[in-house]
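A quick aside before the break. I want you to see a complete sequence-to-structure record at least once, exactly as it would be stored in a machine-readable document. Don't worry about memorizing anything.
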Amino acid sequence: ITVTMSDFFINSSHSSSFAPPGWLIMLVLGIAIGKSSQSLDSLNTLLSSWQSFVNKLIVPLYAFFVLVYLVQVTARALYDYWSSCVGSLSKLVSSEDASQQPILTNIPQDEDGFVNMSGSYKLTSNDNFEEFLAAQGVPWPLRSAANQARPTHTITHVGKTVTIQIKGIIESQSTFEIDGPPVEDVIRGRVFKTKMRYLESKDGIVGFKTAVSEGYNISVIRQFSSEDRNTITMTSRATFKDGREDIQCVQIFQRLS
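That is the input. The structure line, written in tokens, reads:
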């Protein structure tokens, strides 16, 4: 049986009561195919626009952040190298100072037998000092520099009056009365109220610092070593009101005069 296109249209016209005409079906199919082509074209246009956006913005932005990261890594490496050089130089200078320091065997005492702390003392070593500063919220650049520094503390002790002068990257001077009222002083931008007392062992002094507007207190003990009265061990302990664990650092000072 041979069916031609003309037969299809003729038969379709006779059976229009049962199915849509063939020409209508062809028209609908044509419109559907056209719409599909337009949708594909729109999708291709959208993908092309997104790719152009990525190339123009995302890729340069990514390259910028990579550059920033590389600069940061390089700067940190250079700073670590500089810190190691400074640390080595400080140790060399400290060892020379220690070899040239005066040997004192008779440290003056007051009438009650408490030791007189007068003298100039240079920091020679730190133990846990940077972590001690970090616990107080001191920024990394400041605490790293402070940990590498080797300041000189000059103590003038007359009767029950003690003046402590610090010279280094941070300089300060404060005067206290033993068992006297609190004295307000500023350390690394933080305000403290400090009371000074003698140690019961009579070989040093202790300062009790209350951080104003901060949630912690610090005790600072300056004590002559039992073997050598030319060495001061300074032990600092921070206690926190929020329940955090106490933290302590130890610093060693050698007498210069």
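Two observations worth writing down. Residues 184 and 193 are 4 Å apart (CA to CA). Helices lie at 5-14, 22-100, 129-135, 140-148. We'll return to this after the break.
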